[in-house]
Amino acid sequence: MHRARIALQASTRTGNTERFASWLLNKPQAAAATVYANRPKSSTAAEPFLNGSSSAYVETMYNNWLSDPNSVHASWDAFFRNATNGAQPGVAYTPPPNLAPYSKNEVPLTSLVPASGGMPSISAGSPINEKIIDDHLAVQAIIRSYQIRGHHIAKLDPLDIANLDLGGKNPRKVIHSSYRFDEADMDRVFKLPSTTFIGEKEKALPLREILNRLEQAYCNNIGIEFMFINSLEQCNWIRQRMEPPNVTKMSNDQKRLILARLTRSTGFENFLAKKWSSEKRFGLEGCEILIPAMKQVIDTSTRLGVESIIMGMPHRGRLNVLANVCRKPLHQLFTQFAGLEAEDDGSGDVKYHLGTYIERLNRVTNKNIRLAVCANPSHLEAVDPVVQGKTRAEQFYRGDNEGKKVMSILLHGDAAFAGQGVVFETMHLSDLPAYTTHGTVHIVANNQIGFTTDPRHSRSSAYCTDVARVVNAPIFHVNSDNPEAVMHVCNVAAEWRATFHKDVVIDIVSYRRNGHNEVDEPMFTQPLMYQKIRKTKPVLEKYADQLITEGVVTAEEVKDVKDKYEKICEDAYNQAKQETHIKYKDWLDSPWSGFFEGKDPLKMSTTGVVEETLVHIGKRFSSPPPNAAEFEIHKGLLRILKARMEMVENRTVDWALAEAMAFGSLLKEGIHVRLSGEDVERGTFSHRHHVLHHQKVDKATYCPLAHLYPDQAPYTVCNSSLSEYGVLGFEVGYSVTNPNALVLWEAQFGDFNNVAQCIIDQFISSGQAKWVRQSGIVLLQPHGMEGMGPEHSSARLERFLQMSADDPDYMPPESPDYEVRQLHDCNWIVANCSSPASLFHILRRQIALPFRKPLILMTPKSLLRHPECKSTFDDMVEGTTFRRLIPEEGPAAQNPSNVRKVAFCSGRVYYDLLKQRREKNLEKDIAIVRLEQISPFPYDQIKAEIAKYPNAQLVWSQEEHKNMGSWSYIEPRFRTLLQNQKHISYNGRATAASPATGSKAAHNKELRNLLEEFCVL
Ligand SMILES: Cc1ncc(C[n+]2csc(CCOP(=O)(O)OP(=O)(O)O)c2C)c(N)n1
Ligand SMILES: [Mg+2]
User: Best substitution site from 383, 451, 456, 512 to test ligand 1's pocket, by max atoms within 8 Å of Cβ?
Assistant: First the structure.
């Protein structure tokens, strides 16, 4: 009985059970329907037609019948006859059909009322006995309590060591009963509320059976957290699939399939352990059921229409997933252990980080399926948003707007799932219109340990899955040693995703048989846990024994399946021995079929466009919606649109217009453009305004760039959640799916990119080298020293440059294709453009390249409105290109031999230098050369500029502090270029710990100093 009590207490927290009754008694209509007594076996009183108001009438009838059976209607005669002969409740009398039938799963409470005899009788107008009501309410409360809290008691842990630390106390002690049923109550029949499905077709059950079924559903090997979900429909959906008796029952065929899959999962790890005993592989031992579980999710999802599944997962069991879920050729996997050299370019990655992509027939559903496992770094959970972005992109390109064809599965370790903030960030993308992937199935391989740390030291929540509660995802905890329960949960999770298109979590509670990796000693830190593990039989053995006992398989069959798989492994092992090289290409997670084929890898298309296109885009971008009369735009915006139109008429562009023309011209060419980030629709600095809002109608918007040409590619501009790590990861994933798209992420201020540092370091800067995977993602990063303080000044240009992989001591030989060759060989492009035309071209160049490279772009703030920061159509029309370097074009260039100083610079400081030079009348003496692209370093063009000014000293002018900005990057490269014949000196702020001063006065002084120094000849 204690569980009933525990459950009860949860719903009767005040401990005052009388209150329920008095509450009900104040509602006469409810009271009439809620009658109860204590003798279920007493037949007459248990009849459905008996209720409080009719019992006096029945009594009269009964007395009449006793004196003369013919004095009553034949139906009463039959009823009293049956009842006195001991008919069971409900059998003595069958009522005529009800004109207003009860809805599903409903039964009038009166049908459960037993006859008097110890219990108070109910007569018309008599007060209803409070105990009757309370007992019924209590049963309902029990049911609800099981639904809410049953998971606390469920037997989830195969080791039986988990101590669910709910506020430091044992839940059984915290929850003490305030309501008791005795053994005598157990056979009393209670009506079931409509919020339970334990009865299946039964509408009432004896208390004993109610408790049994609740125990089975909620406290056995599955623990479900779902009652926090706001939707009643969704709660009922889960109850329907988890509560009916025997829901987890499997057919013999299903059982055999589980056994076969478990055999492979276990056999794979055993084989690796046998062949490479001291190699790290982060084996799955202890959670081998993960493989059949994933396959079950995939089977069910494919049956429900999914054709492509994108997966992200950590180290644990990864090789097993590649082998047995993706069916990656085993010999390819085994060659990874052989220490062979790679046949192709790149530096590669360790075997348990590599991705894969496979198209194959799902033999269970007989449907073709594409499976991709994304390559990922060691950084746990970092791949989550990347997978989501990739999934979203694939859905987008397939026109799968509801996620019916493409889905994601994310695997997690227990410690990482609870500990890594990016999990939360990713979860919060799950329901956003421009980021949703329409539901992810999360599977936690919960081995109850993170490296050497116990859960009680690695999280403050009861479960490692609590983060999922924020998005109302149901969470299924399941004991890994009950394979059939695991499979049931997997089916339900996949069906949930297909039905509601929302996230769902499967928490497979298991253990880790070895150390963190195969060479670690777990007894150092978890001695008791490992003593227990040593005594625990592998799940394959347990399940095989179970099926043998059940007569589903024979011991010979079990051995046969095992031997066959070992033979498969052995054959692959021998095949792997023949290989002489590994191929990184075999591990690509996003093949771009058709993109590279037939292309000259050094041939770039042009980036200038015909003037007509510029005019068309410019005009559309400067116009209100076609239905302008009804669409009321903010007056300030009308002014902005007017100013844009004037620029178009004058054949000039500012930053926003240049960006729009780059996007628009690509859209015209069929290139999808997606711009994402915090507040990007308007633009942090209110310069972009890509989405116009009706001032009177909620959510009525107009996006001019989406309506440029009837046959243009789709344009997406979307304000993101306030996340950098998650959102940038998402866009990286999006960008790797299809090379024919320009995908941009804009930081609110460049400073915030360091919150996404892991994505920058692990995916963007090094992704191609590690995983042969290219990405043309663009990072727009507002950057510039404008007196806004330490946190709104620097996008940390120096860090990006420091990660550029070009050798500072090596100047590539000059050639006609110098630019594209350098771009081909670099790991990313870093630029700090000063002119709108440069922005236009560099964005278009991303697509013009015959390959894809990430572009890190410092972008302006005040320059967005700077009157001199303009370009003309002449810089953008056909025949023009991106200028990596913009030479001096003023008086100094007319007479270069008279020039005494050449200042090289990059970005917005150019305009400060220009002004200063003008004011000091030094336009003939100082030449200013702008590096629009800093990395790869334009050696060839710089060399030409230096040669142009033979008598000038060389200086690098920057506004950033000396240990920041470009100085550390350009200085050694200038040295290489100048070969000790000349020297370049530094003109800029001194070194500093903080990127910028918080004092406006100090800022101005620093700027004055640098400009004065710039003028010193
Ligand atoms: C972001 C990050 N921090 C630290 C590590 C180092 N690390 C590798 S595995 C591991 C433990 C992971 O535990 P869990 O998530 O439970 O996965 P398990 O290894 O138990 O499967 C740690 C801390 C890492 N890989 N990534
Ligand atoms: Mg773990």
Answer: 451
Average pLDDT estimate for 325-338: 88
Asked if residue 377 has its Cβ within 6 Å of ligand 1, the reply is no
Q: pLDDT tens digits, residue range 754-788? A: 999 999 999 999 999 999 899 999 999 999 999 99
Characterize the bridge pairing of strands 701-702 and 692-693.
antiparallel
Report CA(464)–ligand 1 centroid distance (Å): 13
The residue behind tokens 């009398």 is 93
Confidence at 278, pLDDT banded by 50, 70, 90? confident
- Sheet (strand 308-312) strand order: 222-225, 475-479, 504-509, 440-446, 406-413, 308-312, 367-373, 356-362
Ligand 1 mean position to 764 CA, how many Å?
22
Q: Who has greater pLDDT, 246 or 585?
A: 246
Ligand 2 centroid to 469 CA: how many Å?
A: 20
Residue 416 Cβ < 6 Å to ligand 1: yes
Sheet with 926-931: list strands edge to edge.
Answer: 885-886, 926-931, 901-905, 953-961, 984-989
Residue whose entry in the numeric block shows the structure tokens 């009719």: 54
Name 743's Cβ contacts closer than 8 Å, sequence gap at least 6: 673, 674, 676, 731, 734, 735, 776, 777, 778
Asked which of 77-91, 516-530, 834-848 is least confident by mean pLDDT, the reply is 77-91
Give the torsion sign (CA, 957, 962, 964, 966).
Answer: positive
Identity of the residue numbered 728: L
Phi, psi of 203 (to 5 degrees): -100, -10
**Among 178-187, 233-242, 907-916, whose mean pLDDT is lowest?**
178-187
> Which residue is closest in CA terms to ligand 1's atom 13?
450
Residue 613 confidence (pLDDT):
98
Q: Are 266 and 540 in contact (CB under 8 A)?
A: yes
For residue 305, CA distances in Å to 131, 368, 560, 567 come to 52, 11, 34, 34
- Out of 380, 444, 448, 507, mutate this one to test ligand 1's pocket (max ligand atoms within 8 Å of CB): namely 380
Strands 652-653 and 871-872, bridge-based pairing: antiparallel
Supply the residue whose CA is at minimum distance from atom 2 of ligand 1: 379
pLDDT digits (tens, 9 = 90+) for 991-1007: 999 999 999 999 999 99
Pocket lining: 469 vs ligand 1, CB cutoff 6 Å: no
Q: Give the β-pairing of 406-413 and 308-312.
A: parallel
One-letter amino acid at 1007 equals L
Cβ of residue 316 lying under 6 Å from some atom of ligand 1: yes
Using CA atoms, how far apart are residues 815 and 773, in angstroms rounded to an integer? 27
Residue 529 has pLDDT above 80, yes or no: yes
**Which tokens in the block code for residue 41?**
């076996």
Q: How many CB atoms lie within 10 A of CB 291?
A: 24
Is 962 near ligand 1, meaning CB less than 6 Å away? Answer: no
Q: Tell me if residue 538 falls in helix, strand or coil.
A: coil
Task: Give the closest residue (by CA) to ligand 1 atom 9.
Answer: 451
Between the CA of 299 and the centroid of ligand 1 the distance, in Å, is 29
* 598 backbone φψ class: left, alpha, beta (φ>0; ψ -120 to 50): left
pTM of the model as a whole: 0.88
Residue 283 Cα to ligand 1 midpoint, Å, equals 14
Residue 740 has a CB neighbour count (10 Å cut-off) of 17
pLDDT in tens, 46-66: 444 444 444 455 556 666 767
Q: Is the CB of 445 under 6 A from ligand 1?
A: yes
Residue 705 has pLDDT above 90, yes or no: yes
Residue 451 beta carbon below 6 angstroms from any ligand 1 atom: yes
652 lines ligand 1 (CB under 6 A): no
User: What is the distance in A from the centroid of ligand 1 to the CA of 808?
Assistant: 36
